[in-house]
Design brief:
By secondary structure, the protein is an alpha+beta fold. It has a single domain (about 5-135), classed as Alpha-Beta Plaits, CATH 3.30.70.100. The protein has helices at about 20-35, 55-70, 105-110, 125-135, and strands spanning about 5-10, 40-45, 50-55, 75-85, 95. Strands 4-1-3-2-5 form a 5-stranded mixed β-sheet, with helices on both faces. The radius of gyration is 14 Å and the shape is globular.
Length: about 140
C-alpha cells in the first residue's frame, strides 16, 4: 500500500482556549493512529487547525472522510495530497503544536508581511511551517 501525506486546514468550532475538546481530539487521534500506522502533526493557532497525516493510502483517505464529518471544526480545505517515499513526522502518532509555542514573528520566516493564517497560506509553506516546528521540537507531548 503506497504511503501518502495529506494536509488540510480548518476552522476551530469550539472555544480554542478550552483544553477539554482539544484533549479529546488528541486522545482519539493518538490511539487510532498508533494502531493504524498513522503519524502526523496538528497545529492550532488563531482559531484555525493545520494538520498533516501520513500513512497507508486507504487508511488516510478513510480517516480524512471521518475528519470531514467532524463537527468540532468547519471549512475544511484540502491543501495537499501526495504519495511520499518517507514519513516526515514519524516521531509522532499525532504531535500537537500549540499557539503559545509558535514564535510571534513566525511570519518573517515565510518572507514577512503581517498575515500568517493557515487559511491563506501556500501549501508548501504549510508543510515548511510543520517541518520548522518539528525540527525545533515545538511539539507538545
Ligand atoms: C482537527 C481534528 C483532527 C483530528 N485528527 C484525527 C486523527 O489524526 N486521527 C483520528 O483517528 N481521528 C482524528 N480526529 C477525529 C476524527 O474526526 C473522528 O472523530 C474519529 O476518526 C472518529 O470518527 P467516526 O466517528 O467517523 O468513527 C480529528 C478531529 C479533528 C476535529
Amino acid at each position: 500500500m503506497p504511503l501518502v501525506r495529506l494536509l488540510y486546514t480548518s476552522k476551530v468550532a469550539f472555544d480554542a482556549r478550552d483544553r477539554a475538546p482539544m484533549d479529546a481530539i488528541l486522545h482519539t487521534a493518538r490511539s487510532f493512529n498508533m494502531t493504524h500506522d498513522i503519524t502526523g502533526l496538528l497545529a492550532c493557532r488563531n482559531g484555525e487547525f493545520l494538520q498533516a497525516i501520513e500513512g497507508p493510502r486507504k487508511i488516510i483517505l478513510s480517516l480524512y472522510q471521518s475528519i470531514l464529518r467532524d463537527t468540532r471544526h468547519s471549512d475544511v480545505q484540502l491543501l495537499h495530497f501526495s504519495e511520499v517515499s518517507a514519513r516526515s513526522f514519524y516521531r509522532w502518532s499525532m504531535g500537537f503544536i500549540q499557539e503559545s509555542d509558535v514564535p510571534k514573528n513566525i511570519n518573517l520566516y515565510f518572507g514577512g508581511g503581517t498575515e500568517f493564517t493557515f487559511d491563506t497560506m501556500r501549501s508548501d509553506h504549510a508543510m515548511s511551517f510543520l517541518l520548522y516546528c518539528a525540527q525545533r521540537d515545538l511539539i507538545a507531548a
